[in-house]
Design brief:
The complex is a heterodimer of chains A (159) and B (209). Chain A is α/β, with parallel strands linked by helices. Helices cover 42% and strands 23% of the residues of chain A. Classes of the chains: A alpha/beta (159), B alpha+beta (209).
Chain lengths: 159, 209
């Protein structure tokens, strides 16, 4: 009986434990960027191979947890190649038990989309954008953030 | 009349100072069309290298790259191929490692020597220990290319800033060879039609202030 319950609950429990990684194209990223809600979006661009990104990731995870009942959405957008999704990104997400919303942007040619999302961005990661379109608020940071800096930015903009 | 002008002059001076002070920290480095400075940096063979050492060159493919960034590693063979194709046409590669060794220990001079040997780099691989050149150029990621063209007056004019091609991860899927297109135009004496391109790359590891 206990085994049956465990077998039934096990997939649900693992699904709850961490977020799946959704592969998106640029249009879907642009939709998020243009989201009209009165919500602060915190969009962090990272990759499994990017050391400073991994260093700052716990701060984003903590913010996701801290503001989960408020109109603050943390989204982690992986720049890993889509070919590395199962081999690298999913194991990384499982190992760290990431809870924030996870996307993988499948657009290998940065030159076609970086300027469209942020002309000031040179393409280096980590990079983070915060926006609330309803309040016409926007901030872009092309460097690693400290936990204090991230907290300050969220406090400054959260509705 | 003369006396009344003085406060305005003071005000103008204050405003000008404000503008100058505000402009200093945000220096983004070179834009296409700017004159790039020469450098004198240590190569993996221990010798100092400057652009002015290459009397016959028509320009250079100044490539900020390193040992550790997976994008740099993915592009190593293509940087070698760029050099082998364009050095005979007057545009050799000069690779510069911009990363601070404290922040990225595997980008040390010793590791650079080892990597250059393993890959048999046919071009200089220099260490920008003070990061002065990296900052002057405005490089932010690896790999980050600056193609400069030697002018009749001896200046090095920036003709192209950007990436190598449109497929870092899969060389066999390259459709657009951005750097080669720019170099072909320069070699043919034409203006570069796409002088700025962007790619995702590893952030340069800056020395802690």
């Amino acid at each position: 009986m206990g085994l049956v319950a465990a077998l039934i609950l096990w997939p649900a429990a693992t699904a709850l434990a961490q977020q799946p990684v959704q592969t998106i194209k640029f249009e879907q990223l642009q939709e998020i960027r243009q989201s009209p809600h009165d919500t602060l979006y915190v969009v962090n661009f990272w990759a499994t191979w990017c050391k400073p990104c991994i260093k700052e990731m716990p701060y984003f995870e903590a913010a996701n947890q801290q503001y989960k009942d408020q109109p603050v959405r943390v989204i982690l957008v992986s720049m890993d190649a889509v070919q590395d999704l199962e081999k690298r990104v999913v194991p990384f997400v499982q190992k760290r038990n990431l809870k924030s919303r996870l996307l993988l942007l499948d657009e290998p040619d940065g030159n076609t989309w970086i300027d469209k999302i942020e002309p000031k961005w040179s393409g280096a990661i980590p990079a983070t954008m915060l926006f609330n379109n309803k309040r016409k608020q926007y901030e872009f940071v092309e460097r690693e953030l400290t936990q204090e800096e991230l907290e300050k930015l969220i406090q400054q903009y959260k509705p | 009349m003369k006396k009344r002008k003085t406060p305005f002059l003071y005000l103008a001076c204050f405003l000008l100072m404000g503008v100058l002070l505000a402009a200093v920290p945000a220096d983004p480095g070179y834009q296409v069309g700017d004159a790039a400075r020469d450098f004198k940096l240590k190569n993996v063979d221990g010798k100092m290298v400057s652009m002015s050492d290459f009397q016959d060159a028509k320009g250079f493919i100044v490539t900020f790259t390193c040992n550790t960034c997976p994008y740099s590693v993915a592009y190593e063979d293509r940087i070698i191929a760029l050099h082998n194709k364009y050095a005979p046409q007057g545009y050799p590669v000069i690779a510069i490692n911009p990363n601070d060794v404290q922040a990225s220990p595997e980008d040390s001079f010793g590791h650079m020597q080892q990597r250059a040997k393993e890959k048999k780099f046919p071009f200089p691989y220099l260490l920008d220990e003070t990061q002065e050149i990296t900052k002057a150029y405005g490089a932010t990621r690896t790999p980050h290319l600056y193609v400069v063209q030697k002018q009749p007056d001896g200046q090095y004019k920036v003709a192209y800033i950007g990436t190598i091609d449109d497929s870092s991860r899969e060389p066999e899927k390259v459709q657009k060879k951005y750097a080669e297109a720019a170099l072909d135009e320069l070699v043919a004496g034409k203006a570069v039609s796409q002088p700025n391109t962007k790619a995702i790359g590893c952030t340069i590891k800056w020395r802690e202030a």
